[in-house]
Amino acid sequence: MMEKWQAAVPGMRATVAENGVLWYGFPALLAHGERLLHGFSSRVGGVSCGAQGTLNLAFAKEFPRDHNYDDPQNVLENLRRYGAALGFKAEELVFSQQEHGVNILVATDEHRGCGVTRGRGYSNIDGLITGVRGLPLITHHADCAALFFYAPQAQLIGVAHAGWRGTIGDGELGMGKAMVRRLVSLGAQAEELLCGISPSAGPCCYQVGEEVAAQFAPLAARHGEQLARPDGTGRYLLDIWQANRLMLIEAGVPAANISIAGGCTICHADIFHSHRAGHGHRGSLAAVMMLR
Ligand SMILES: [Zn+2]
Predict the structure, then answer these.
(1) 3-class SS letters over 154-217
(2) CATH number for the domain that contains residue 171
C-alpha cells in the first residue's frame, strides 16, 4: 500500500504513523521540521464508518440536516489520532469557518480550542495565520486545495482553503494573494515565503462550466497559460494547482519556493475524501500547521 500511497501524491512525502494514520508533508517544509509542524491528511487510519470512513476530521451539524453526520466522538478520536501522528493536541486546534471567501483570521492564544472545545465566535474565515508557538491551525478539505505558508525569518505560518472560488477570488485577489499580503503586513517578506499547494480535485477531473472557466481567463492570459481546457462535452477541466501557483507568483513568492503536491482527490477517492467522487457523501480531510 505504501508504494501506492506515495505514488498518488508525487510532490509530498507519505508517512504512516501510529494507528495506521496516513498523512503527507512537503519536503521543503519538512526540512524546517525543527520549528515547523505541518501535514495534509488522508482518509486512512481513523474510526469513522461509511462515506465518512475512516479518518474524518470535521464536526458535522445534527442529522438529518447534515447527511454527512458523524458522531462527534469519532471526529474527536480522529483528530487525536491525527494529532498524535503530527505532534499537536486536538483540544488546542484553531478551526477555520469556511465559506469559500478570502477572509483571514490572525489567530492568537485567545483562539486556542475554537471549534473543538468551544464555539468559534467568528465566521466566514477561510484562511488562518499565526506567529504564536504551539498554536495549531486547521482547515478542512474534500476536493478544495489547502494552501500552506511558512515565513522562516518572520516565524509566521498560514494555512488556507481554496476551491475554485477562493483560488480566483474577484479575479485579481484570490486567497493565495490575500494570504501573502496579510503575512507581509505582519512582517514577512514575500521572497522568504515557502508555499505548498495540497492534493485537491486535479486538472484531470475538475470539471467546471463555461462561466467558471471564464473567471480564470484573465489570470491565464496574464501568464500566457491555459488554466481551463475544453473537455469535449461543452465543459472545462480546471487546473487550480497552476492557478494558485500563478497567483502566488503575482504576489511576489519566488516560483522556486512553491511546491505542488500533484495528487488528485477525485482520482484517488480511496485515499482522500472527495466531494465529487462521493456525490456529496464524504468526510473531511484536514491541513494542519503549527510553529514549534
Ligand atoms: Zn483526477
Answers:
(1) CCEEEEEEECHHHHHCCCCCCHHHHHHHHHHHCCCCHHHCEEEECCECCCCCCEECHHHHHHCH
(2) 3.60.140.10
